[in-house]
Amino acid sequence: MRKLLIFILVVMTASSSLAADSKSVIVFNLGADPRTIDPALNNTVDGNNVISNIFEGLVRTSFNDSPEPGCAESWEVSKNGMKWTFHLRDNLKWSDGKPITASEFRKGFLRAMNPETAALYAYYTFFIKNAKEFYNSNVDEDDVGVYAPDDKTLIIELEYTNPLTLDYIAFPIFVPARDFMNEDPSWAAKPETLISNGPFKLESWKHGDGGEIVLVKNHEYWDADNVKVDKLRFVMINDSNTALAAFKSGRIDYMSSIPSPMLPMLLKTGQAISMPALGTAFCDFNVTREPFNDPKVRRAFTLAIDRKIIIDKILMGGQRPAVAFVCDVVPGTTEAQDFRSEGGAFLPERADIEQARKLLAEAGYPNGKNFPKVSYKYNSNPGNKSLAEALQGMWKSALGIEVELLNEEWKVFIETRIRRDYDIARDAWLMDFFDAGSILELCITDSAQNNTGYSNRKFDDLMRKANYEMDHVKRINYMHEAEKILMNDLPVLPIYFYSSAVMQSRRVKNIYHSPRGFVLFRGAEVLQ
Length: 528
Prior knowledge:
Blueprint: H1 2-5, E1 25-29, H2 45-54, E2 59-61, E3 67-69, E4 72-77, E5 83-88, H3 102-113, H4 131-135, E6 146-150, E7 153-157, H5 165-169, H6 180-183, E8 200-206, E9 212-217, E10 231-235, H7 240-248, E11 254-255, H8 263-269, E12 273-285, H9 295-303, H10 307-315, E13 320-321, H11 339-343, H12 353-362, E14 374-379, H13 382-399, E15 403-408, H14 410-419, E16 424-430, H15 437-440, H16 457-468, H17 472-489, E17 492-504, E18 508-509, E19 512-513, E20 519-520, E21 525-526
Parallel strand pairs: 1-10, 14-15, 14-16
Antiparallel strand pairs: 2-3, 4-5, 5-7, 6-7, 8-9, 9-10, 11-17, 12-16, 12-17, 13-17, 18-21, 19-20
Helix pairs in contact: 9-12, 16-17
């Protein structure tokens, strides 16, 4: 299954104009100004695109999206699978030349699970012995199962055996930490204090739309000999039309935000290519307040939209209708079928207006009468605006409800969702692992990523069982049952499954774009 998802980008047909002032510079349109590039605090794709190129954990992501040795050259696992011993490479250094020690990896792990850090991905550490207890302030850090007996050895004891242990450890929250990262909250926003250990390091950061993040090669990186690029310029052009014009004029080498109306022509001519993506675009319902605390209202809104029209007429980029929450191509119980094929469809591709109106009437709002004023919030972007207008029109036509559209700048919008200051909000998730749990976990009651306020004890219990289960078939079946509950309750409104369209200039090659959304430049090269 994973082989089907491997996609290493090679030379593509595009502008041959030089996009930078040097042969060893690559310009990438990051799109948005990241809210943060602190590995413990980030939860966005744009932030991860920076973090994954400047930091590295014990294990790193290979160019076939599987875990491979990173800062650790080797490891052993105890017979019962509950103890992992990692051996660091010789002469590991930070970008300022200071040696990296196993105790700094321990600090990084503890920082991610420390409640004072407030890491949104803290729950990814809970497979480690007493990590959850530490997060809940029930034990001290000395009780956590992470030990550094010497400068080159890190031992991790598990709370339970987990089939994704190496995948978790390759995730960006599991990177080493220096003391000042706890002492200076703004350390990750300043080049002078952002000390990293990956293939690149931060040189400068100009904030805002039209700004840029400049990364330069980290000559202290253990694998620096294989890093062929001297500088990366991550520009922040939020408007996709402006970004396309910049690409065509040779000022950008690589971009993935392409105007929807232009996509069919660009794909047909080969100027853009479509590639696999493990992700679902959806709406969040704020289930903590009326009227979306009523599941009949949520289902009415969900059935009122026509997913086929959205992907064929609005998006036009090879997306697929989201007939459930977990996207296709995610591994199932066997190689023969993926998770989606096994689980089937819970939602129609086309709108079921008759049933939507019936449910709305049963909820007390026949033909939308007396329905309270509600709004749909989304982050500013032409593509998001087009989708918002399409949803607005479908809800008006099918249900007789006028939904106000409100757009916000990206950083503000992220905080809006976290605070649940919305009725309906745009959301999307590119999966962190090749596992259905990577997206289903968003809806666990106490998940820091739970933007909807949804809570279902049976769903939580099934997800807990899946996390503890080493038998692959049983694990997947637990998650199938969990998804059934979720699709019955519908705290989220699935719209489409992702397909990434990218454009890359002829002057660069070997940029790796993961189906999980992040882009790696450590193997990239400039040809001319």
